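Quick bug: Putative gluconeogenesis factor output formatted oddly.
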Amino acid sequence: MKSPLESMPKVVVIGGGTGLPVILDKLKNEPVDITAVVTVADDGGSSGKLRECAGAVPPGDIRNVLVALSQLPKAQLDIFQHRFGASDGFLAGHPLGNLIITAISEKYGGISEAVATLSTLMHIKGHVFPASNDTLTLSASFTDGTRVSGESEITHANKLIKNLHLSVKNSDKIPMANSNVIDAILNADQIVLGPGSVFTSILPNLMIPNLKAAVLKSRAKVVYICNIMTQKGETDGLTDAEHVKILNDYLGAQVIDVVLVNQTEVPDMYIDKKKWDEISQPVEHDAKGLELQNCDCILDNFLKLENSGAFHDGEKVTQKLMHILGQEGK
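Here's what came back:
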């Protein structure tokens, strides 16, 4: 007889950045077996500093996912998320959780061991896996013929991306996902991509050869949560259909089965473009373009306005994911 966990639908969520935890925080309350696969190509902020000075696999995105799936009291999670102030010397800008993840990685021999240890200590609902045990470097070639290395450099180049390249930092090895990631994808009932940057949060995972192969082989329904806003220097002017096409092109097949698209107008006067300087304009809907990508589109109100920004409403997105799974109301 299967255990209650084994009988639950298996949902694998792949991505990084700030959008992923918004969905996971709500999805953990549903009767599903969650696996979060998190990018390890970040090289900005605290993660970038730890990556350089300690040779660490970037911990920032992993930290936020652990917190989103944790069942610890908020007070304990707030301590884990505490960020040292600008006057704190070499600690300035580092969240305590990033330092803890880096320390446990060093003590136990790698990022996967650190995540497994913290998953137990933080009472995680589901499973969290780094996309790779190696620190990955993302490089981009632009339409003007230039090329840069590093996720943060790509974001701030403010140029049209022609193609991406993924490599293991300081190595000729081919990037590889570990077996836990592959098994989760192959056994999934639903694979969720995003929300998050197409080029710097989602694709750094899908470009890992064996992870890509697993997605192509999986029988799971693949759902893409389209960004609400375009991103400067990355997706300026791209429609929802063009976002889907980029993902399908890198996967080498029309893999996206369903795309969730926000249809609620974003009030321009509400958005603080200085505070959220990476965003550009609302993503435009292209129904005919999505038909050409051979995917279903769910148009709905997924918008949550808060803190002078436009975000996904995790509760509403989760309801649609559950509906797609056929678990709504169960």
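Actually, after a second look the formatting is fine. Residues 43-125 form one domain. Closing.
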